Each structure stands twice: as C-alpha cells, then as structure tokens.
Predict the structure.
Amino acid sequence: MSEILLQIDGREVKAEEGMTLLGAAQRAGIVIPTLCHYEKLESYGACRICTVEVETRGRTSLVAACLYPVEKNLVVRTRSEKVDKIRKMILELLLAHAPGAPELQDLARAYGAREARFDKESSFCILCGLCVRYCAEVKKKDAIAFVDRGTRREISFIPEIASQECWGCKECFPLCPTSYLQAAYFLTQGLAFPSASSEPASEE
Ligand code: SF4
Ligand code: FES
C-alpha cells in the first residue's frame, strides 16, 4: 500500500492510500468531531460535523472528513472560520432534535452553538444511523431500521426480530450519541412485549 503525504493543520501527516482524512487525522492524533462515525462500520456521512476545509490545486472546499479519501499534497484545515460556522449551524439543528444530549451540548459549547435557535421537534434521535448500521453490518440482524421518509424519518425496532435478539445484545446502546436509544428500546419493549417490560432492567 503506497504512502501519501499531506498536510493537516500545518503538520505533515503520513497516510496510506484508501484512508479517509478522518483516519489520517486520528492516526496523527488530530481530533475531528464525529457523530455518525464508528470504526467498525462503513462511513455514512450523515451528520457532517466532521466537515473540514481542503485545498487542492488552488481550490478550497468543505468536505466530510469521514468520507473524503487522502490525496497527495492535500492541505487540510480542521478548524477555520468556515468550518466552525458550519459545525455551529449543524449543532443548532441537531440540538433541536435532541436538546438534552450531553455529547451535543459539549460540542455546542466548543462551537458557540445556541440551543434555542431552531424550533424544537424533539425526537431525541439525530438519525446518525449508528444503531441501524451496527445491527445490520456487525450483528447482521437488522433488528432496527429507519422508517418513513423526510421529516417523518425515524428509527424503529422490528418487534419480531427485537424480541428474539435485542434483550441479550444491546450492543448498539452505547453507540447512540443522544443516549436515547436505551429509552427507545425500553419503550418499544414495553409496548410490544408488555410482560417483558416488567422484568428488572438492571442486569448490567
Ligand atoms: S437512536 Fe441514536 S444511534 Fe440510533 S439513529 Fe438515532 S441518534 Fe443514532
Ligand atoms: S462523522 Fe462524518 S458525516 Fe458524521
């Protein structure tokens, strides 16, 4: 695999062909925020909080670091006025969905995002797809799926599969950036399997 040299935040960074900018930055110890990325899953590009500025052949553009492949001599800025502005706006939009999420609040503080900028439509899910993709790609169970489209899009456990698989798994819970998945699971559990919902919830 051939080595590629690029510049990230003024530092020369070595990467391998096929790596993403996020992978190269992480390997060099440079932090880029992410909300829909998990190393065991294919990149998805849903949240765009990993947006960075790249300069190549005299042109500057904003790209998702978790999707963009490394290129020789690329100049990357992980913080700039434009990058910070776009992250701030993304966070304000996401906070409208999940206002109480600690991970979002930490990022909001870092980027000066205000919680009340957009009308609240709290679903507590930011549609990052981590739970859905983890269940499909790693567990190969498809017990959770996206349902509906557009503004009505949400996640839903598939009761027939969830009743067999989820109780003993729950591996997707800690991946959820809004901490809502656990509550969503128990809600679904309670509705779909009323007798199971009275079981103690503290075996972990
Ligand atoms: S429930 Fe959590 S992990 Fe699943 S899509 Fe929504 S925010 Fe992402
Ligand atoms: S982490 Fe790159 S788009 Fe979400």
In short: Confidence is low (pLDDT under 50) at residues 197-204.
